[in-house]
Design a protein that fits this description.
The chain is α/β, with parallel strands linked by helices. Helix content is 37%, strand content 20%.
């Protein structure tokens, strides 16, 4: 295994980033961040209590109500977003070290993390020039109308532990461009990326209070969701947690975006190349050790081709090299935390108990006695009503489900509380589109695992509310205001919104 560094990978692990400064915590409570491959202490960060969270919220509220941020032009705010990317690239090595240790992702993928963040920040910055923040409108009773889109206010952004750096730009990027201020709440299991973003924000001179970063567990995180000083919550995580957050926001009519769980289907049509499909699906499932909400984990295939698909997936999974995420030959690392490995193993046991056929994997790699590793696992003859077909496992476990025909395959694919992602495997794009239009999912790809935050990402049904990425991801950080004047204003452009609420 790669050696553990003796120094923390972030500059101020004992503090929070509040009001533009590294603030000392109100208590001496700390969180141990454990290396997922070695089970040893990686570093330790301060744990936010109620007082710390309240200070962060107050800083964001003050920066929105009294600070210059909402009154800047979109182009001026975009300049800060463009500066965040290079500042994160300076921290690329640290980010590439942190992600594998916190979440188990292999280093060969993690080393591109900072470049991905820069691309995302730049994409949101570009919307400053193209998004219609102000549009003329024609009032039905005369006069001059304007449709104005203004910042929703203060935002609580909550990110999970599986890919925090990948999700942070899609929460703070559109929020900052819109003119919102943010409290970014990091997961106790994976706080590192949030600290690096805070360092970058301080480096580029982001005005105080515009971005605040704290790490807290569930109880204190709920205080963020409940706080009336927060106008909107954007959350990525489990559907169970999303239900709780949605209910709390509903009580006070707070705005909310929820990107939740999935049980996404790959629909294999009768003309698909089984070998190619199996190789593609197996490879995608090993990325981030299956800890991806949009993973294609239900493989729906005709009964006549079921065994061929199971065998092909099993063959691919048996060849996967599981091990040290810093070894360039490793294809799949560990799960992020011990409880997640226990959860995955529990689902594997449930699949066997409910009568599915275990075709590959199902246990811990025999040569790895430390770290939260599990073998990539394939089940065949899975009933779509079974536990492993209906509940999100969040690990490298695939279920192959037989269907009578194409119509039955679509029915099975849609027979779930989720609707995040899906894919259609076929040689015919017209057939792919025809099936895609029948699938109740936020994204439908063809012949691959495909999602695209540059267009929009999010789900139907209990996979969430709203979208992240692209123009659609910006909409949810804006309030729409109708302005009706007696006649057009003399100014060539409308005045900036006033500071304060």
């Amino acid at each position: 295994m790669a050696a553990i560094g003796t120094a923390a990978p972030v500059e101020h692990p004992d503090r929070f980033f509040i009001g533009g400064e590294w603030a000392a915590p109100a208590s001496d409570a700390t969180i141990d961040v454990i290396d997922s491959a070695t089970e040893e202490l990686y570093f330790r960060v301060a744990e936010a209590g109620a007082e710390d969270m309240s200070r962060a919220v107050a800083a964001a509220r003050s920066a929105f109500d009294d600070g210059p941020w909402p009154s800047l032009s979109h182009a001026e705010r975009a300049d800060y977003l463009r500066a965040l990317g290079p500042a994160m690239q300076k921290r690329a090595d640290a980010l590439a070290e942190i992600w594998p240790r916190e979440s188990g992702t292999v280093h060969s993928i993690a080393r591109f993390a900072a470049a991905g963040m820069k691309k995302d920040f730049d994409a949101y910055a570009a919307l400053a020039d193209t998004y219609p923040f102000v549009e003329p409108a024609t009032p039905s009773l005369g006069g001059y109308g304007m449709l104005v889109r203004e910042p929703v206010g203060t935002v609580g952004a909550i990110v999970p532990w599986n890919s925090p750096h990948g999700l942070i730009p899609h929460k703070i990027g559109p929020a900052l461009l819109a003119g919102c201020t943010v409290v970014l709440k990091m997961s106790p299991e994976a706080p590192g990326a949030g600290y690096l973003v805070a360092e970058a924000a301080q480096e580029i001179g982001l005005p105080p209070g515009v971005l605040n970063v704290v790490t807290a567990d569930r109880e204190v995180s709920e205080l963020l969701v409940r706080d009336p000083r927060i106008d909107k919550i954007t959350f990525t995580g489990s559907t169970a947690a999303g239900r709780r957050i949605g209910a709390i926001c509903g009580e006070r009519i707070a705005r909310v975006t929820l990107e939740l769980g999935g049980k996404s289907a790959a629909v294999i049509l009768d003309d698909a190349d089984i070998a190619a499909a199996a190789a593609t699906l197996a490879r995608a499932e090993c990325v981030m050790t299956g800890q991806v909400c949009s993973s294609l984990t239900r493989i729906v295939v005709s009964r006549a081709r079921h065994d061929e698909m199971v065998d092909a997936l099993a063959e691919n999974f048996r060849k996967v090299r599981v091990g040290d995420p810093f070894d360039e030959q490793t294809q799949m690392g560990p799960l992020a935390v011990e409880r997640q490995r226990d959860r995955v193993e529990g689902y594997i046991a449930k699949g066997i108990a409910e009568g599915a056929t275990l075709a590959a994997g199902g246990g811990r790699p025999k040569d790895l006695d430390r770290g939260w590793f599990v073998e990539p696992t394939v089940f065949g003859n899975v009933d779509n009503s079974s536990t492993i077909a209906q509940e999100e496992i969040f690990g490298p476990v695939l279920s192959v489900i037989p269907a009578a025909d194409e119509q039955d395959a679509v029915r099975i694919a849609n027979d779930t509380i989720y609707g995040l992602n899906s894919s259609v495997f076929t040689t015919d794009p017209d057939r792919a589109l025809a099936v895609a239009r029948q699938l109740r999912a936020g994204t439908v790809g063809m012949n691959s695992f495909r999602t695209d935050f540059g267009i929009a990402f999010g789900g139907f049904k209990q996979s969430g509310i709203g979208r992240e990425g692209g123009r659609e991801g910006l909409v949810h950080f804006l309030e729409t205001k109708t302005v009706i004047l007696d006649e057009p204003p003399a100014a060539s452009s409308p005045p900036r919104p006033p500071e304060g609420r």
